[in-house]
Amino acid sequence: MENRKRMELEEALELLLSEITPVTDSETVPLPAASGRILSETVTAKVPVPSFPKAAMDGYAVKAEETDGASPEKPVRLTVMGESLAGKPWKSSTALLRGSTEPQKENAEKDSTGTAIEKTGASETTGTAVRIMTGAEVPRGYDAVVRQEDTDYGTEAVEIYKGVTAYTNYCKVGEDIREGQDLLLAGRRIGRIEAGVLASLGMAEVKVRRPLRITILSTGTELYEPGTPLKEGGIYSSIAYTLSASLNRAGFQVRSGICPDDTDVIADQLKQALETSDVILTTGGVSVGVKDLLPDALERIGAKRLFSGVNVQPGTPTIGSVKDGTPILSLSGNPYAAIVNFDHYFWPLAAKLTGCEAFLPQREEAILRSEYPKTNRLRRLLRARIMNGEVTLPVKSHASSVLSNLLECNCYIDLPAETSVAPGDRVEILRMPE
């Protein structure tokens, strides 16, 4: 593998993706806990939303044809049959208006208090209106709502000053969601709109994929956890925290640890991680130096090497392996090199493992507004900032060991090998995960 020609990033990624299968384990969680999770099955609406015709604003339910030609100079006068309030069954005041003393029928529909609910038919609505509030049921026989501002706010009779057409300010049954509609497909990530839609269907819980389990192993005797005193030559381990923040935000379960420069220890930690992980990420030890022990450790555990030496900078020595179906992505120990290659390789992995395309990186074109006089021998991934279709290079140093200048960046420029660019050129960018 080491002697073969360096492969392109896309070829390396394709090899890695070809060796894995989606994680299909699922669990049912309460809706409030489902934010960021991935649907494991398609959600089909069992009820229409709304389930009854309702008013879109406060006013009067009317038969639209009876308001034709209404104006302040020539208002249409209608008898008010009663009032329909949101959350309460419609109760007509027809009997009271007509002075009826007939007893309630035994089989009449009743509300929660036992009061009969009178159904108003189309033949009984001629010349009438119903005072109605936003979200309340539009009684049978009426097909529009006149907003209250276009009336005299009458109680027993109302004057209409502006005509309406059928279904004005009227929400039909199923206008939002049709019964039987495949609304949210399996593999969709649950955000605020999805959560609201699920709630509108009355779903208190939802079936989702279990979170991906990720292990990060940072190799290097020089690494120290933040909060511990540094010894001479030591540095704090930052890459694992950078990657963990991104993984946690995606809703994944993350475990991380530091391995010293010892092939046996690294191999042992990899074996342990394989027992509980869907993906293993390692940082450091992937080049050809004395302390670059990852290749030997991977060979020792029997991992299948898919690629190393990819035709891109930074991150040329990135290694992709697989062991018993578990992908192992071995990244550089330099912060920027690790992060940019993590973004290029891991998110497509996550998309395939979860069945959620929302994790796929987004590529687009933008106009370069900064100078970049260097012509690189290899394909180059540059940290940059995009805004309103224009991309700039707000950083002075492009060294792969520098992390802090990423604070000013939100994307990468993917610059082909042997390519020179100038302000005004169109370049391809890859957006960082938010």
Give an overview of the whole structure.
The chain has helices spanning 9-18, 94-98, 192-200, 239-249, 263-274, 294-300, 335-354, and strands at residues 26-30, 43-44, 54-55, 59-62, 76-84, 91-92, 128-132, 144-147, 157-160, 170-171, 182-184, 205-209, 213-219, 223-224, 235-236, 253-259, 279-283, 304-308, 319-323, 326-331, 363-368, 380-387, 390-392, 411-415, 426-431. With 434 residues, it is of the alpha+beta class. The strands form seven sheets. Strands 4, 5, 6, 7, 8 and 9 form a six-stranded mixed beta sheet that branches. A six-stranded mixed beta sheet has the order 16-13-17-20-19-18, sandwiched between helices. Strands 21-23-22-24-25 form a five-stranded mixed β-barrel. Strand 22 (380-387) and strand 23 (390-392) form a beta hairpin. The longest helix is centred in the last third of the chain and has 20 residues, at 335-354. The radius of gyration is 33 Å and the shape is elongated.
- Which structural class matches the secondary elements? alpha+beta
The share of residues in helices is 10-25%
Per DSSP, what share of the residues sits in E-state strands of 2 or more residues? Answer: 25-35%
Number of strands: 25
* Total helical elements: 7
Quick check: average pLDDT? 89
Biggest sheet: strands, sense, closure? 6 strands, mixed
Q: State Rg.
A: 33 Å
Q: How is this structure best summarized?
A:
The chain is of the alpha+beta class and 434 residues long.
Give me some keywords for this one.
434 residues; 7 helices; six-stranded mixed beta sheet; 25 strands; single chain; alpha+beta
